[in-house]
Amino acid sequence: MVYKRVILRRGKEESLKRFHPWVFSGAIERMDDVEEGDLVSVYSHEGEHIGNGHYQIGSIAVRILAFDDSEIDAAFFEQRLLAAYKMRQALGLIREDNNAFRLVHGEGDFLPGLVIDIYGHTAVMQAHSPGMHFARNLIADALTRLPDGLVKNVYYKSETTLPYKAHLDPQNAYIVGEYDQDVAMENGLQFHVDWLKGQKTGFFVDQRENRSLLEHYAQGRRVLNMFCYTGGFSFYALRGGAQLVHSVDSSAKAISLTDANVALNFPECDRHESFAVDAFKYLAEMEKDAYDLIILDPPAFAKHKTALKNALIGYRKLNVKAFEKIASGGILFTFSCSQAVNKEQFRLAVFSAAAIARRKVRILHQLTQPADHPINIYHPEGEYLKGLVLYVE
Questions:
Q1: For labelling, which of 8, 168, 255, 304 has a CA lying 20 to 30 Å from the CA of 288?
Q2: Residue 199: inside a domain
Q3: For residue range 120-137, what is the model confidence (pLDDT) as tens digits?
Q4: Which domain holds residue 312?
């Protein structure tokens, strides 16, 4: 098939020749009459074919799907999804006690603009580009062809992820199958997933390994889980033998899901209590030394570079409060999921907070996103989750 042509300015193909999958609008010299979501072929100024991808209006004008002349058709998506499945299988994520994981992580799985999370037999698909929106039915069909009947239902959830300027009016709905149940399992722990109305795809599977690490530190500790959302860290802490666990989130709905998830795994548990209150207010008013294990996992403080300065101030203030209040010998799990904040900037914000609080602090672990959120080696921007585990004297 002949795709519409995008011709680059002289010399602008260099990053693409290093397999970086983005073509910025400023790199384009001219192009055919293309529209949002069109499949295009990208050529250098000298006429060399670079690759095929999806076009969209905006700073990132083309996302390259194939650095050759591959047809972007049903067979292409089947092949890419099968490769993603085989990697998750090799990671040991598809097993009896674990049926929740990320199957497709955008550029990390060479499918820029696409995110797919698996919960049991339901795939929750998010398109972040018009091209993936238009390909949603091909992708859903390919999902149902994965081995062992992995996917029976495909829920499309892109109302909030597609660029609003594209005027696509996406509708969240089942493309394949229907709602069956909302309970999934992670490392033997069950949880309700609200993919219909919850944040992102309904659960943050990117903290799986970090929750497991926390479980090993929880024995006998008093745990505070800030920005708990649906309580992932909380029920791992309970299984780890925490003396008490307090879950805090500003959303009453999130707190109700946290309580439901705790009850699902620990019926009649008297070690857990939840609070629907602002995190900064809770930290400011709580007693000093009340907790000796604190988790800070806030939503992204900076979604764009323009918000970077304020985000770093926010991270510093948040961590100052935790350092001031945590008991001596306490452990702090602190995270940033802001892609605009790199790990050096985040570490500096946390170090500054430790100095302001005048606490002796040691790094026990430096954390990142799990293997089912892979980073394309040619696209380092894919590294977004940063975390530190700190011992506080």
A1: 255
A2: no
A3: 999 999 999 999 999 999
A4: 204-392
